[in-house]
Amino acid sequence: MIPLKDNVPTRQFPLITVLIIAVNVVVYFGFQHGGLNLPSDQEARTVKYSEIPYEITHPGKKCGLVTASSRPVAPEGSVVCEKRAGTLDRIGTSPNDNQPAWYLTILFAMFMHGSLLHIAGNMLFLWIFGNNIEDSMGKPRFVAFYLLGGLAATAAQTLVNANSTTPNLGASGAIAAVLGAYALLYPRARVVTLIFIIIFFTVVELPALFVLGGWFVLQLLDASTVSVANGGGVAYFAHIGGFLFGLAAIRLFANRVRYDYVQPRLPVY
Predict the structure, then answer these.
(1) Do the domain assignments include residue 191?
(2) Which of 2, 71, 190, 267 is the most exposed place for a label (fewest CB within 10 A)?
(3) How many domains does the chain divide into?
(4) Does residue 222 lie in a domain region?
(5) Can you tell me the distance from the alpha carbon of 218 to that of 172, in angstroms, rounded to the nearest whole number?
(6) Angstrom distances, CA of residue 265 to CA of 11, 187, 262
């Protein structure tokens, strides 16, 4: 299911939502050079600034990307973490080579993405549902809510897979908090949704609780199939943690919720 728009109007222009989308786009194309295939160090830079659970649970340790010019300590393209002093010197990435602190990588990773499809999907969800959550609490509160949602998502993923060396990046954890908040505040809102069934697709209008609740159930099902030891390509536990944070915290932030968003539906003759 791909949501296209909802029917909940906003009182003000969603400035913070637009700015967050703009920052994500600038970071992906301007800093990561995503989709452009320009610099040779593109992947190394992405790994360097991504959040890696091992670095959080082992303060002072650093991780680096094995490149073609590295000594053969691991396959090229894999991530190696320092187990003892000097280990990363062997792959050309010193622990003191301007590596950002682990707490900064948590923030950086919230605005980075792994592919065009990744950022496009995240920004679509943020645009559709973020504007109403921003409207429900105002701009300063929304900034705090969004960042705290991202932190909660990172904490959930790290707790489940504390020794993982897989870089985590993307806005989906913070956006999951927005989805959880929306599901609680506007469960009866109508969401125009594109549904794919094998090779066929259709556009239908569904209750927000069905769309977002279905999304959350899919995250739970997918998370149950992922090996905690080996990790996976999607941080499902970050999605789950962010969504639960949104459900739990939204009432503390939302101080001007719309309760008149459900329009009477006239009978069709």
Answers:
(1) yes
(2) 267
(3) 1
(4) yes
(5) 14
(6) 22, 16, 9
pTM, rounded to two decimals = 0.86
Give CA–CA dist 171/27, Å, rounded. 12
- Its domain, for residue 181, covers 2-10+112-253
Nearest to 167 by CA among 183, 178, 152, 154: 154
Rounded Cα distance between 254 and 247, Å, is 12
CA distance 50 to 65: 12
148 has pLDDT over 90: yes
Residue type, 73: V
Q: Do strands 79-81 and 63-65 pair parallel, antiparallel, or not at all (unpaired)?
A: antiparallel
Does residue 34 lie in a domain region?
no
3-class SS string, the chain: CEEEEECCCCCCCCHHHHHHHHHHHHHHHHHCCCCCCCCCCHHHHHHHHCECHHHHHCCCCCEEECCCCCCCCCCCCCEEECCCCCHHHHHCCCCCCCCCCHHHHHHHHCCCCCCHHHHHHHHHHHHHHHHHHHHHHCHHHHHHHHHHHHHHHHHHHHHHCCCCCCCECCCHHHHHHHHHHHHHHCCCCEEEEEEEECCEEEEEEEEHHHHHHHHHHHHHHHHHCCCCCCCCCCCHHHHHHHHHHHHHHHHHHCCCCCCCCCCCCCCCC
- Kindly report, residue by residue over 18-43, the tens digit of the pLDDT: 999 999 999 999 998 887 765 556 77
88 domain-assigned: no
Q: What is the pLDDT of residues 184-223, one digit of tens each?
A: 999 999 999 999 887 888 999 999 999 999 999 999 999 9
